[in-house]
Amino acid sequence: MNNQPPKWAVRFLKWYCNPYFLEEIEGDIYELFERRLLVGSFKIARIRFIWDVFRFFRWSNIKRTNSTYRTMNHFTLFANYLKLGIRNIRRDLVSSSINIFGLAIAICFAIAIFIFTDIMRNMDSFHSNGDRIYQVTNLLDQDGNKNLSGDSPLMLAPAIQKDHPTVEAASRLEFRSASVKFNADVFDELTVFVDPDFFRMFDFDMITGDRNVLDDKSSIVISEAKAHKYFKAEAPIGKEHSFKFLNGLN
After folding, report:
1. Nearest of 74, 62, 80, 69 to residue 20 by alpha carbon
2. Which residues, including other chains, have CB under 8 Å from residue 249's CB and lie 6 or more apart?
3. Per-residue pLDDT averaged across 29-40, rounded?
4. What's the pTM?
5. Does 94 score more than 50 pLDDT?
6. Which sequence spans correspond to the domains of the chain?
């Protein structure tokens, strides 16, 4: 009779066991197997051998790759550095607090500079005609101080389009405060007047409606937030408003 333990159990042990512990664990399991053969049946000894193989299947005995060891070592080093840092902070609390506060201020300034730079470089970058759109500005001379202003005469845009054929489209912006009435509700709003070319120049998304809506002087464009404010869950298309402007139009 072949009084040997199951070969598949031995292969499984060698597969999962850390080589550092394999010889010791394998020797103990074989010794227990031989003892059980002397006092019991071969079948019971084989079953107990299989149980011992699975009994030693623990995290501490499992074979690990080098990357796992490196990860554990990095974690251990980080934990040690953290403990050392906390001890140093407690040892000199005033100096450490000043350093931490200064570092926090520096990080805040770095984040603010990054956000400002990102806004300046990427604001409105989604417009497909962005490299062909220009803003007309005025150079104001006030007591010898020259300053640029975004304001320009209202009639300048149609005059430029008339005199310069290279200007494909132009749009003016004019802001006015108004009382907007819908049914029995009245809202104080800041309205913006633009020319029909506005949506042909800029690629602002339209959730619903026609991009040529500004060709109809009786139509308006409102934001999604305003639509929820005025109409709740109702569709805004086709609704009528009345406007009372607080300032006269030029």
Report:
1. 62
2. 174, 176, 193
3. 82
4. 0.50
5. yes
6. 7-61, 66-118, 153-245
